[in-house]
């Protein structure tokens, strides 16, 4: 009886629902066309097949993300369509993806106020709360103002403080005893150690364990050893929520909750430590330099504000540098001629082995190592720390290119529409980097054409939201590369897959690790 009633209702009302859907689609199409004519824009010609109303495309996006091929998938779509800007639907909503430097410049720079972060605050909130990566407007400006002094030149210049952590890293490398090991795993622990000391006044010392002769530590830092894996898992889940667009709330697995709990517990150790200091003790603790957490604790005693800002800055302080180092050594191991040339520059400038002149390795002297800069630029080109990002239109607006038969006319962007910008594909576009754009070749950075790239080379974002920690990451990476090439004479690759599978969450890393022999 009940089934008969349900069948009758469905039979009676489905035609009306279908009719309303068709009417909505027609009216929406007409609305777009009217605004396109009013604003002088043209439709995008590049298209990705999206199934019915975009209810299919999210599946290949999620699958490629899990397989470590999402970055390559976007690039292949641009190459196959022959367009710099392409459109599709994701879960019913029209979305634009672009690798065109002019469009990226507009969103991040010249039309900055036309675009915002959209649902990112809600998507990221369970892990990162309210911080520089999740906030727009006044909240973002306040966060940026608080962070800026931490990355002032004199703070970044303190490279000598990295040496004790570097020596601990070297002990782990030598422990491998000329056998292959995952260097990326060590780099992630290394950058946690350096970032916590630099930003929070106390290193977590993840690398200091019994396997290399350190005594067992009875630490009061909750989650000291679980933090790294929990932080990684939480970011995986968080980036999956982004693919679900405004339906992010449908994706909240139990492991996301558990990982967030571990990360928050770890962060609260530093927060509680800072809050236990009096004003005089905070002043004394930061007398040798600006410590972000201590300066923030002088402004607010709210533990959630402190925790959120701490975790936001950890994403930048830890993940980007570890990823950059891992991809650099991955390519150096595959390109022995590049490795030897770089090593010779370092030996000539700073010495090698027991004769290394460590005191001469400074912020200024590292910047003078031209081939080192070229190697790092090339690693950032092929493997930018944030390979894809997005903005959401705050009003009906336009982007300068992507419309018309040749993709050179403006396109209409409606209020609330998501626009993805795929930096990783921009960095591999032959128009800007030549026929060998897929090849790791640092020498390209000495060619005149490559010095005039502008918005076609954007490893640290651009415009008002340009990365504050750019020099911090470059300086730390330069120091670590220099010291390791002074200490170890040979580097062998033990990675089987090329191009490598890439984990792409908030930042990018090698999905299968960086397996090498250093000796």
Describe the structure.
- The mean pLDDT is about 85.
- Helices cover about 50% and strands about 10% of the residues.
- Helix 12 (about 280-285) runs antiparallel to helix 13 and helix 14 crosses helix 17 (about 370-380).
- The strands form four sheets. Strands 1-2-3-9-6-4 form a six-stranded mixed β-sheet, with helices on both faces. A three-stranded antiparallel β-sheet has the order 5-13-10. A two-stranded antiparallel sheet has the order 7-8.
- The chain has a domain at about 130-380: Orthogonal Bundle (Cytochrome p450), CATH 1.10.630.10.
- The chain is an alpha+beta fold and about 525 residues long.
- It is globular.
Order of strands in the sheet with the most strands?
Answer: 1-2-3-9-6-4
Helix content: 40-55%
Structural class: alpha+beta
Largest sheet: 6 strands, mixed
What's the architecture of the domain at 129-382, going by CATH?
Answer: Orthogonal Bundle
Briefly note the CATH topology name of the domain at 129-382.
Answer: Cytochrome p450
Number of helices: 20
Using brief descriptors, characterize the structure shown.
single chain, 519 residues, alpha+beta, Cytochrome p450, 20 helices, 13 strands, 10% strand
Task: Describe the structure in brief.
Helix content is 52%, strand content 10%. The protein is of the alpha+beta class and 519 residues long.
């Amino acid at each position: 009886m009940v089934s008969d009633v349900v069948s009758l209702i469905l039979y009676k009302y489905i035609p009306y629902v279908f009719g309303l859907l068709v009417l909505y689609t027609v009216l929406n199409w007409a609305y777009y066309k009217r605004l396109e004519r009013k604003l002088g824009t043209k439709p995008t010609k590049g298209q990705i097949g999206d199934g019915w109303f975009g209810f299919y495309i999210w599946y290949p996006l999620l699958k490629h993300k899990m397989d470590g091929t999402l970055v390559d998938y976007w690039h292949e779509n641009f190459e196959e369509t022959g367009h710099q800007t392409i459109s599709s639907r994701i879960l019913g909503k029209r979305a634009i993806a672009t690798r065109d430097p002019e469009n990226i410049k507009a969103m991040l720079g010249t039309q900055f106020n036309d675009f915002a972060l959209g649902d990112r605050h809600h998507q990221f909130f369970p892990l990162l709360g309210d911080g520089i990566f999740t906030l727009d407007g006044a909240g973002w400006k306040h966060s940026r103002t608080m962070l800026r002094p931490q990355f002032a030149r004199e703070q970044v210049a303190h490279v000598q403080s990295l040496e004790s952590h570097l020596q601990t890293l070297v002990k782990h490398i030598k422990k491998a005893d000329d056998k292959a090991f995952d260097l990326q795993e060590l780099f992630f622990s290394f950058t946690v150690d350096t970032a916590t000391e630099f930003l929070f006044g106390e290193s977590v010392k993840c690398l200091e364990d019994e396997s290399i002769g350190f005594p067992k530590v009875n630490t009061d830092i909750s989650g000291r050893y679980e933090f790294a894996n929990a932080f990684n898992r939480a970011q995986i889940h968080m980036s999956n929520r982004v693919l679900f667009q405004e339906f992010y709330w449908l994706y909240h697995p139990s492991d996301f909750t558990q990982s967030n709990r571990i990360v928050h517990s770890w962060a609260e150790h530093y927060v509680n430590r800072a809050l236990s200091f009096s004003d005089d003790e905070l002043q004394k603790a930061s007398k040798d330099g600006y410590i972000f957490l201590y300066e923030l604790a002088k402004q607010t005693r709210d533990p959630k504000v402190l925790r959120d800002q701490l975790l936001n800055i950890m994403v930048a302080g830890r993940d980007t540098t570890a990823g950059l180092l891992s991809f650099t050594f991955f390519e150096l191991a595959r390109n022995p001629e590049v490795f030897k040339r770089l090593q010779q520059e370092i030996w000539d400038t700073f010495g090698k082995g027991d004769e290394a002149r460590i005191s001469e390795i400074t912020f200024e002297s590292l910047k003078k190592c031209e081939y080192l800069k070229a190697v790092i630029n090339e690693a950032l080109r092929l493997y930018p720390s944030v390979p894809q990002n997005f903005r959401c239109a705050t009003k009906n607006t336009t982007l300068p290119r992507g419309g018309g038969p040749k993709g050179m006319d403006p396109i209409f962007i409606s209020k609330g529409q998501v626009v993805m910008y795929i930096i990783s594909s921009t960095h591999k576009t032959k128009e800007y980097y030549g026929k060998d754009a897929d090849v790791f070749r640092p020498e390209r950075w000495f060619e005149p054409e490559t010095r005039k790239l502008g918005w076609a080379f954007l490893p640290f974002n651009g415009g008002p939201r340009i990365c504050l920690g750019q020099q911090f990451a470059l300086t730390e990476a330069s120091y670590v590369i220099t010291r390791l090439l002074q200490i170890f004479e040979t580097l062998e690759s033990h990675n089987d897959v090329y191009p490598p599978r890439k984990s792409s969450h908030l930042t990018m890393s090698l999905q299968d690790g960086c397996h090498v022999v250093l000796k």
